[in-house]
Amino acid sequence: MSLTQSILDGNRLALARLLTQAENDAPESRADLAELFPYTGKAHLIGVTGAPGTGKSSLVNQLALFYRKNDPSRKKVAIVAVDPSSPFTGGAVLGDRVRMRDLSGDEGVFIRSMATRGSLGGIAQKTASLVQIFDAAGYEVIIIETVGAGQSEVDVARLAHTTLVVEAPGLGDEIQAIKAGILEIADILVINKADRPGVENTERALRSTLELAHPVKRVFRHHGKDMSISAPTADPTMWIPPVLKTVATEGKGIDELVAAIAKHADHLRQSGDWAARDRARLGSEMETLLQEALMDRFHENVQPQKYNEMVEKVLNRNISPHEAVTSLLNGNQE
Ligand SMILES: Nc1nc2c(ncn2[C@@H]2O[C@H](COP(=O)(O)OP(=O)(O)O)[C@@H](O)[C@H]2O)c(=O)[nH]1
Ligand SMILES: [Mg+2]
Question: Are residues 320 and 185 located together in one domain of the fold?
Fold first, then answer.
């Protein structure tokens, strides 16, 4: 039986094998990915990002446990951890290991850690491949955990339907820690470690930054307390990220978080944003591949020596970078 057929039949060993091949970008994995691609497009892709130590991995464990144990539909869950310090790769504290053991005997859960070697674009591309494999293999919820460090947040948001941004109290100056940029990609804001002192400060800082990012909230402030998405005056096509508090180590707030994730999925489907995000994701994947292919083709046709000479010319101010590129491209066609 072919590798892809085994994967479609739910064979975990076959799945693990293709995941490894795809992670190494092995040439033989391309045909298998292509065979599986028609079976993708069913999973709910959930991105989880935030600074190291905020409790992302703990939260992801809890989410997976909830989907498997408390959710009546017992969805199959895959976890892709793009995090060198992830407990999934070892270095887990005891509590995490105990919880992971709960998950590891479960055939409906598959956890995969990604090495973070290589360029950012490369990581995003490989993550996209792993996600596609899980999607085809029938995993209905795919959670992608990445460390919030600049560009990777944006990349994960591009990969996901729903992006959770995780904050925690006590990570230094709250205002510093909570950047407006990260809020733009957040569909749901999670303040984890709500058992820790300073949670009120974090929440206040988060809500005021959120207010700047979504001025519409001010309207609802007039009605007294906090705005809610179901407020009658709210534009139903607009999603305002809820702020939720959790204690991942105790499983607190997970049911509300799962409810918010489901609500966001409904919102995406009703507003047409689900399809829009799929289009953006696949479009950006194609663009990355196209860039790679064009660069490969270019370097195949231009000798390194010629290329270096051109760099020298630019360095000596003989020609501009633009002229150099035009010349290289034209030379390419001759
Ligand atoms: N007090 C407290 N500790 C937590 C909570 N969630 C996670 N932790 C701990 O914080 C540390 C980092 O958690 P981890 O999930 O690895 O964070 P990550 O780096 O964001 O993936 C671990 O020691 C966890 O046990 C929480 O809600 N409260
Ligand atoms: Mg982690």
Answer: no
